[in-house]
Amino acid sequence: MGTFLRALTDGVLEGGVYGLMAVGLTLIFGVLDIINIAQGIMVILGAYLSFVLWTHLHIDVFVGLLITIPAMFILGVVVQYLFIRPLRGRERTSMSLIACYAVAIIIEGILYQIFGSNYQSMNTYWTSPQAEFHVFGYYLPYIYVLGFALAVVFVAAIYFMLYRTQFGRSVRATMQDHTAARLVGIDVNRVAALTFGIGVGVTAAGGMVYGELNSFNPNTGYDLISRLLAIVILGGMGSIAGALGSAVFVITLASMVDVYWNPEWSTVVLYGAVVLVLVFRPQGLFGRREARAQ
Amino acid sequence: MRSLALWRAAGLAVLLAVVALVPLAGNVQLTQVGVLVLLYVGAAVAWNIFSGFTGYISLGAAVFFGVGVYTVALITQHQSLVGGVVFALFPLGGLVAAVVAVPFGLVALRVRRHTFVVVTIAVFFIFQLMASNFSWTGGVAGIIPPFLNWDQATVYNPFYYTAMLIAVVAAVLAWAIWGSRFGLQLRAIRDDEDRARGLGVKTMRVKLTAFVISGFIIGMLGGLYFYFQSDALPQYAFNPFFDLTIALMAFIGGFGTLSGPIFGALLLEPYLGWAQQQVTNTYVAQVVLGVLFLIVIIFLPRGILPTVGEKLTAINAGRQRRATERASGPPPGLPIGAATAGSSPEPTTRSAS
Fold first, then answer.
1. B232 pairs with which residues across the strands?
2. What is the Cα B251 distance to its own chain's centre?
């Protein structure tokens, strides 16, 4: 029973963090109709930013978010403005994939150049053995709970933004129909840029928690983006609740396999579950069929 | 137009002759790089037969490649074959890859666009993880082929010519498919799948056929790669960079055209090979590559060959128009556009270049 509870808590708490990163990805997809392949490496960039602020300026990683989130937001807006906005026409979808990939390998190359390929751990207070408490008969690090709480706060903020503000109305309108949104006077370009910024901005928070939980190097971005894509597709592309739900579901599943079977197979089960679900529900668990026309 | 076709054929013949002569220079390193370049030409062309023609961007081509690698590796491990007979195994690698392509395609081709891309990525990771976790694949240690006791000076020549053969066959196949009824069905799917189905195209069967053909060719190249590289390791046999690289080659040259992927592979692979040898600043090379991609995307959004072709057509059209204007002048009473409309070719038609 203890093992089961442990796998469940680990899965749900870590799933929440994945959910935050996946929400950024799905938001970008919903509004811009592109997949931000660079989301994985941007998470790692966020982790490195927090790491640098901690090691060189001794700013606590949670306080550092006040700097890293705006920085990542600006990065997102700039990338969207320079490389995504100019894409037009029939090949837009494929070209945007390539553009995001190009951004990803540039970031990856720069990170390698600065930090090398060694695995990095945060080595902050939160990763030290004191920062944990006793529950269900084992030690749970604070960072799991705090990271989950952070994810909940951010997702709640995104929900509030989407459903309670004027800007959120324009975002949802743009998600539903680009042309109609433009016709009613929404500045679709501005909405797209800001959404891309927000989607990338949350990677700063996600990356910070990810970096606290795992050791990472620039190559980790590939593993991350594959998981995030699997999560987003499983949840139904463009569905925010779906991204959250499937993140928790998938990561808990992987954590169960980890405990009961073999850590080496947990990732296979993760991708296998995604493929299996898509065979029966091509639109994902929570997606609507043809939710978005071409 | 007849003379143009002749020029083209002559140019192609010269290119093939030059490529065929490379190993005779006797430079082992050059031949070694040449094998990889030809391998990528073949893979990019094969990828394009499915993804370029149908518009379904597959990032699972490495599945076929890896299956080819491991098929040949496992056969040689159990039979310990040596000598020229190993070259007969490559089609077998292709065959197994084609068999794998059927269930893969039946699952993945049910979804479209972004979802398809992600499903191919997921299947790819499943295969990579299986290769490193099963015991019969040698796990992370992989499989090493029996020692080929060949002359060091010419060891790469057979690989070179085999890769060249596969690349040429793939290109001819792509050309034959392009103009055929089958090719037209593929391109109809790319333009509007629902309408194509409405007009009677058996979309699933057509897509799956192209998927299997492309898998067969890439699987053969995988078999070749096993002996060329002398190892079957999960991270190199099932390599995510392989997928991205061939996709980028096709995009840079011209996605969905016939010569685009060949051009892209000839352009990109020598650079990548060179960058890999720069131990000190690999990462700078990587950043440069990313910047190059962004430049191509912003300024040549449809790939180098189609965009350049369009520019040339436009220049030619402008020259022709000026020539006719000089010769006759616009007829009085007619707007200029009406007088020139007949002489300028349509700028928007998509040519196979």
1. B143
2. 10
Cross-strand bridge partners of residue A135: A138
Q: What tokens does A31 get?
A: 């509004």
We report the CATH number of the domain holding residue A134 as 1.10.3470
Interchain pair A294, B247: CB under 8 A: no
- What are the backbone angles phi and psi of residue A138, rounded to the nearest 5°? -150, 175
- Residue A290 is assigned to a structural domain of this protein: no
Report yes or no for ipTM above 0.85: no
**B297 in A contact zone (CB under 8 Å):** yes
B159-190 tens-digit pLDDT: 888 888 888 899 889 888 988 888 888 888 88
Q: Token digits for B284?
A: 């700078």
Tell whether A36 is covered by a domain: yes
pTM: 0.77
Residue A259 falls inside a structural domain: yes
What residue in B sits closest to A117 (Cα-Cα)?
B283
Q: Searching chain A, which residue's CA lies closest to the CA of residue B115?
A: A233
The whole domain housing A6 covers 2-280
Alpha carbon distance B183, B189 (integer Å)? 10
Nearest CB to B107 within list A35, A104, A275: A275
User: Is the backbone of residue A236 left (phi > 0), alpha (psi -120 to 50) or beta?
Assistant: left
Give me A135's structure tokens.
């529950």
Question: Would you report the helix, strand and coil content of chain B in percent, each value rounded to 5?
Answer: 75, 0, 25
Distance (Å) from the C-alpha of residue B157 to the closest C-alpha of chain A?
A: 34
Among B47, B48, B112, B119, the strongest candidate for a mutation testing the A interface, having the largest count of A CBs within 10 A, is B119
* B298 → closest Cβ in A86, A229, A230: A86
Dihedral of alpha carbons A85, A91, A96, A102, sign: negative
Q: Which residues of A touch B284 (CB under 8 A)?
A: 109, 113
Could you tell me which of A200, A171, A271 has the C-alpha nearest to residue A231?
A: A271
SS3 B232: strand
CA distance A107 to chain B (A): 8
Domain count of the fold of chain A: 1
Contact B41/B217 with Cβ under 8 angstroms? no
Distance CA B347, CA B191 (A): 19
pLDDT at A189 over 90: no
Instruction: List chain A residues with CB under 8 Å of B290.
Output: 102-106, 109
How many residues are recorded in chain B? 353
Q: How far apart are the first and last CA of chain B?
A: 13
Give percent helix, percent strand, percent coil of chain A, each to the nearest 5: 75, 5, 20
Judge whether A212 lies within some domain.
yes
CB contact under 8 A, A265 and B133: yes
pLDDT in tens, A18-61: 988 888 888 888 888 888 888 989 999 999 999 899 888 888 88
Q: State the amino acid at position B122 in one-letter form.
A: A
